[in-house]
Amino acid sequence: MKKLLMLVIMMTALLSLSACQKEVESEESLPVNDAIEEDVKFDFDKVIEEPGEKSVKSFDMMAKKWEFVPSTIIVNKGDTVKLSIASADVTHGFALREFGVSANLVAGKIVEIEFIASKKGTFDFFCSVFCGSGHGSMKGTLVVE
Ligand SMILES: [Cu+2]
């Protein structure tokens, strides 16, 4: 009777031991799963960035003595920015140095300007054609988020 009890105890011990081994095996296979998840995450980040780069932001703007209306433009990094600028009185200019933009705004005409907001930051644009006493303060701001 004692021998049978011992046998049962040994069997139980063996069974629980093999159960432990199984757990260890499943833990060993985890790093492989982690590696796959990291790859998926990397692709996911890429997808998030791409739609922003393709969007187009269009603005109608008025230039007049001595301001731009609107004077602040907010876009996202990567946006294609299209400005349709009309001068209401005399010839003005539109200059945005950081993006290589410079144009004359002849009175009575609508001038189309297009550039890509390729870097984040706050940038000043200004009138580049002398237009009178307030010329020096004829400025606006482009915010690229
Ligand atoms: Cu001016």
Rg for CA atoms: 34 Å
Number of helices: 2
Uncertain parts: 22-26, 44-53
Whole-number mean pLDDT: 80
Strand order of the largest sheet: 2-1-4-7
Describe this structure in words.
It contains two helices and nine strands. With 145 residues, it is α/β, with parallel strands linked by helices. The strands form three sheets. A four-stranded mixed β-sheet has the order 2-1-4-7, with no helix packed on it. The model is unreliable at 22-26 and 44-53 (pLDDT under 50). It has two domains: 2-52; 55-144, Sandwich (Immunoglobulin-like). Helix content is 36%, strand content 37%.
How would you concisely characterize the structure shown here?
By secondary structure, this protein is α/β, with parallel strands linked by helices. Helices cover 36% and strands 37% of the residues.
Structure keywords:
elongated; Immunoglobulin-like; 2 domains; binds copper (II) ion; alpha/beta; 3-stranded mixed beta sheet; 145 residues
Compile the SSE list and pairings.
Blueprint lengths: L1 H27 L1 H25 L1 E9 L2 E3 L2 E4 L4 E8 L4 E5 L4 E5 L4 E7 L4 E6 L12 E6 L1
Parallel strand pairs: 1-4, 3-9
Antiparallel strand pairs: 1-2, 4-7, 5-6, 8-9
This protein binds copper (II) ion.
